TrEMBL record:
<feature type="compositionally biased region" description="Polar residues">
    <location>
        <begin position="50"/>
        <end position="65"/>
    </location>
</feature>
<dbReference type="InterPro" id="IPR011047">
    <property type="entry name" value="Quinoprotein_ADH-like_sf"/>
</dbReference>
<protein>
    <recommendedName>
        <fullName>Nephrocystin 3-like N-terminal domain-containing protein</fullName>
    </recommendedName>
</protein>
<dbReference type="InterPro" id="IPR027417">
    <property type="entry name" value="P-loop_NTPase"/>
</dbReference>
<feature type="region of interest" description="Disordered">
    <location>
        <begin position="18"/>
        <end position="124"/>
    </location>
</feature>
<dbReference type="Pfam" id="PF24883">
    <property type="entry name" value="NPHP3_N"/>
</dbReference>
<keyword id="KW-0677">Repeat</keyword>
<feature type="compositionally biased region" description="Low complexity">
    <location>
        <begin position="28"/>
        <end position="37"/>
    </location>
</feature>
<dbReference type="InterPro" id="IPR056884">
    <property type="entry name" value="NPHP3-like_N"/>
</dbReference>
<feature type="compositionally biased region" description="Polar residues">
    <location>
        <begin position="73"/>
        <end position="86"/>
    </location>
</feature>
<feature type="domain" description="Nephrocystin 3-like N-terminal">
    <location>
        <begin position="314"/>
        <end position="475"/>
    </location>
</feature>
């Protein structure tokens, strides 16, 4: 309340019914209902002074002394206060700003990023036992009921609340001895009346969805109230002897009041103007979230992600929901299990339940099938983005932080977590819904284990104080398990752990049997015994059952399902003594696909090529791209080769992307001991793919590939550039330009391959930079050129080629780090003529172009390599060195810490404290 201007008091006075205003004039010392105070405001009492006539002065007048005196009697939940900005919306103040405001200073700085928050309203006081307050509440709810027809869940919640009012009104004796009941009605009445006003403007689909979710929570709380002892019809006088019952009734009402406060906050967002909405949306988009990482994104359909079959995994899901709803439960719940135990399906089902209950704060489902969903650096920005979309208080706090520092999205993971999650969560803690859950699935599928470790370490450091919980699933990989188990004895309350592979086998098999009978119901009852045997063979691996189903009944293909079921059972019985169950299944499927007697040798080779290329591909690829990478002359050959592999490879029906179905399959294929004749030789095949990528670039790269007409405008300002890129840069060329070096360094060295690289550096380097720059991938170019130089040097290539690669690394790095990279033509017009005169790149390429500026002079002789990145450290760095393999930078600072840092971002990956 501290610092509110008379404008707010006059505005709020208009919502008071006449009876309340008359009652207020009769009182000389009103009591302020603490239930109306905004969390985060000072809980000071209102100060009243008398005029010369002896009548009370204007209500709403506050003094610094009264606020200070009251502060000694009330707990301050946070260190923030509330003030009005010039746009009419309240905003939190720092303690210093609050002090200035108390002294008369008024802030007039507008904040376009922050929407209207829930303004505290002044209470309607009644001299009676509270009957008039409850009557006013009933009338306000009737008005709200009319305005909520556009939102059925809220309409229903209002009806339920009206039907429960008699429970509180029955406590007349309590109302005489306690002011809480009267104040509860007064506070909620004011909020409901404001909500009526806001609901008329709440037209945004996004806001209405959030309001509907909160309304469901109100309904659940009311249903709990109706089912409690307060609805049992017992005489109030007998219950008053049990203080615990009375306090529980007030606690339940406070919970409902809090939910209505959230409703008011969300509904008030609809009053934002277009400028504010655009500004907030821009701030959130600039975080760079991985939108495909949400549990039910379109990629979930592409890769076959789904929820548990009905009546399976019931105990696990029940326990998980109980943990989520328990306010005293551990902050982190780690579900770990071996490959194929059903972690992702369980996480998906939990997300559905949490989402339906309005408790899902955010979700990040890692998967190797998507580049953005496999990078741990996207986890924090994505969670912040989703939370901001779901919670107005969090969004308000986050946008306030982004106003001060718009570039947080490019900081390292530690700084991002602190600024994008910890600070705004703590600031909005009192206004946010309780027990919301963040779900992070398949953490082991993130490509950078160092960043994963950083995320986990930060999580353990902050989780205990945050108002959200974290549900994490992963394999028990050594790096993840070490972080999860660190300090478990001292911090046992901070996390709970479930080992899926240690659940009693009979319980898992019962669920698998239900799943198989549901998927293969068309084969019942004739083959019920065979299906039960298949469930027994699956053990505790759901992936075994799921893969079997795809083999027995492949989508879009007519097969003899009975014979396929028989084949799996027979093969398993013959081989289970020497091989694991999943290996037996994969071997049986591949044998049926490749060793078919009706196939020609060329067809068998095509199937193997498609299989191995999918395993080694750096990302999911289109069937067209897959065919070219495999060296197949016709698209139909790739389509035919994929048909018998659909049990182990996923071919999206929506976009024709091909990828592996489960992480356990590449593990199997890359082990010669396990896959035997189907073994994918990673070194050999990556070398082949590097050659194919170089062939694609040789055939398709050319000068000014997208026909840009001017160097005077930035790429972002070129009309229809995205369409031009789609027209002139093929999918296979885009893949080759981004990943040829990755395939190269994983393959074997050969003289022909080195010669192909030499030709690329002499003839196509700048054209390659064009493609990557147009696709906003110059960071990939800078990293790739560094890797190429190191690979050639370690491969003992000739000094001429190594020197050329070194100059290419310098040239690409300088361009990538310069703002001139915003315009692709300036690769030729600026970067080339301004490079060092002795650079092999300048000497090789400049004579090929006419009309370029000629830059000479002594200063040009001093041109060196620009830094790829500049990063700062909180403590002064005293020493720095590269690791032996040149993959990391090790630094020592004034605090005595030794840090292992990422060579391009400077982010600390591991930190050691000296002794």
């Amino acid at each position: 309340y501290v610092g509110l201007q008379s404008w707010l008091m006059d505005k709020q006075a208009t919502i008071m019914p006449p009876s309340a205003r008359e009652a207020k004039r009769k009182l000389s010392t009103p009591s302020l209902s603490t239930s109306l105070l905004q969390p985060g405001s000072w809980r000071g009492k209102r100060s009243r002074t008398n005029s010369r006539s002896g009548s009370p002065s204007d209500l709403g007048t506050y003094s610094q002394d009264s606020a200070s005196a009251s502060s000694s009697n009330h707990t301050q939940p946070t260190t923030h206060s509330i003030s009005l900005s010039s746009d009419g919306g309240p905003r939190p103040l720092t303690p210093e700003a609050s002090a200035n405001h108390l002294g008369g200073a008024t802030s007039t700085t507008p904040s376009v990023a922050r929407g209207p928050s829930v303004a505290p309203v002044r209470p309607i006081l009644n001299p009676d036992g509270g009957e008039a307050s409850w009557k006013a509440l009933e009338m306000a709810l009737s008005a709200l009921r009319i305005s909520t027809k556009i939102c059925p869940p809220l309409h229903s919640a209002v009806d339920n609340l009206k039907s429960c009012l008699h429970i509180f009104q029955r406590y007349k004796e309590a109302a005489k001895s306690r002011k809480d009941y009267k104040e509860l009605a007064t506070g909620l009445t004011a909020m409901v009346e404001l909500l009526v006003k806001h609901m008329s403007n709440a037209s945004s689909k996004e806001i209405m969805e959030i309001i509907a979710s909160i309304a469901k929570n109100i309904t659940q709380e009311l249903e709990s109230l109706e089912g409690s002892q307060f609805h049992s019809g017992r005489r109030p006088s007998r219950m008053l002897g049990v203080l615990r019952d009375e306090e529980d009734l007030v606690r339940r009402y406070r919970k409902i009041e809090q939910l209505f406060r959230q409703l008011q906050a969300e509904a008030s967002m609809s009053m934002w103007d277009v400028t504010k909405r655009h500004h907030v949306n821009t701030q959130l988009e600039n975080l760079g979230p991985a939108k495909l990482a949400i549990y039910n994104s379109k990629i979930s359909m592409d890769i076959g992600r789904r929820s548990c079959t009905e009546n399976t995994r019931t105990q696990i899901l029940s326990d998980s929901m109980a943990w989520a709803e328990n306010p005293n439960g551990a902050k982190i719940y780690w579900t770990n299990g071996m490959a194929g135990t059903g972690k992702t399906t369980i996480a998906f089902s939990l997300c559905e339940r949490l989402d339906a209950a309005g408790k899902l704060a955010a979700s990040f489902f890692c998967t190797r099938t998507s580049r953005e969903c496999s990078e741990a650096k996207h986890i924090v920005p994505t969670i912040a983005y989703q939370l901001a979309r779901r919670s107005a208080p969090f969004r308000d706090a986050l946008c306030g932080i982004l106003d001060k520092d718009p570039d947080i999205g490019i900081l390292n993971t530690t700084s991002q977590f602190n600024s994008l999650l910890a600070k705004p969560l703590l600031e909005s803690k009192e206004l946010m819904e309780r027990n919301m859950v963040v779900v992070i699935d398949a953490l082991d599928e993130c490509g950078d284990p160092h960043t994963v470790k950083i995320v986990l370490d930060i999580l353990f450091r902050y989780a205990a104080d945050l108002p959200v919980k974290f549900f994490v699933t992963s394999r028990p990989e050594p790096s993840i398990r070490t972080s999860m188990m660190a300090g478990i004895d001292e911090q046992s309350r901070s996390r709970s752990i479930l080992y899926l592979h240690e659940i009693e086998k009979s319980l898992v098999q019962a669920d698998i049997e239900i799943y198989l009978k549901d998927e293969l119901k068309h084969m019942l009852p004739a083959h019920e015994a065979d299906i039960e045997e298949l469930a027994e063979q699956a053990g505790n691996l759901f992936i075994y059952a799921a893969t079997s189903v795809r083999y027995i009944c492949p989508s879009g293909k007519s097969v003899n399902s009975k014979q396929r079921l028989k084949t799996i059972l027979e093969v398993n019985n013959k081989s289970k003594k020497s091989m694991s169950d999943i290996d037996v299944l994969y071997s049986a499927i591949l044998s049926a696909a490749v060793d078919d007697d009706e196939l020609e040798p060329e067809e068998q080779d095509s199937i193997k090529a498609v299989l191995w290329t999918t395993i080694c591909a750096c990302e999911p690829v289109l069937i067209d791209t897959l065919a070219i990478l495999c060296g197949l002359e016709e698209l139909e050959l790739a389509v035919s080769a994929l048909q018998p592999l659909r049990s182990v490879l996923h071919v999206s029906d929506h976009n024709n992307f091909v990828t592996t179905l489960h992480a356990s399959f590449p593990d199997f294929m890359l082990s010669q001991e396990r896959s035997k004749q189907f073994f994918c030789d990673k070194v050999s095949h990556n070398g082949l793919l590097a050659k194919r990528c170089l062939d694609i670039m040789r055939a398709q790269l050319r000068f000014n590939i997208c026909h840009l007409k001017s160097s005077f405008i930035l790429d972002d300002e070129v009309p229809n550039l995205k369409e031009q890129i789609g027209t002139h840069i093929s999918q296979e060329l885009s893949y080759a330009c981004r990943f040829w070096v990755d395939h190269l360094i994983q393959g074997a060295t050969s003289e022909p391959l080195v010669e192909m690289i030499h030709g690329f550096l002499l003839q196509r380097l700048l054209y390659w930079m064009e493609v990557l720059n147009l696709n906003k991938c110059m960071v990939i170019a800078a990293v790739a050129s560094t890797k190429l130089h190191m690979w050639l040097r370690n491969s003992q290539a000739s000094s001429n080629i190594v020197g050329l690669a070194h100059d290419a690394q310098t040239f690409v790095g300088n361009y990538a780090a310069n703002q001139v990279s915003g315009s692709t033509p300036h690769i030729y017009l600026s970067a080339l003529p301004l490079s060092a005169p002795t650079s092999h790149i300048r000497l090789t390429y400049q004579p090929k172009f006419t009309g370029l500026v000629r830059v000479t002079g002594t200063l040009m002789d001093q041109v060196g390599q620009a830094p790829l990145n500049i990063w700062s450290s909180y403590n002064r760095i005293r020493s720095a060195s590269f690791s032996a393999d040149r993959k990391y930078i090790i630094t020592g600072d004034d605090s005595g810490r030794i840090s292992v840092r990422h060579p391009h971002s400077g982010e600390p990956l591991v930190t050691f404290k000296s002794h």
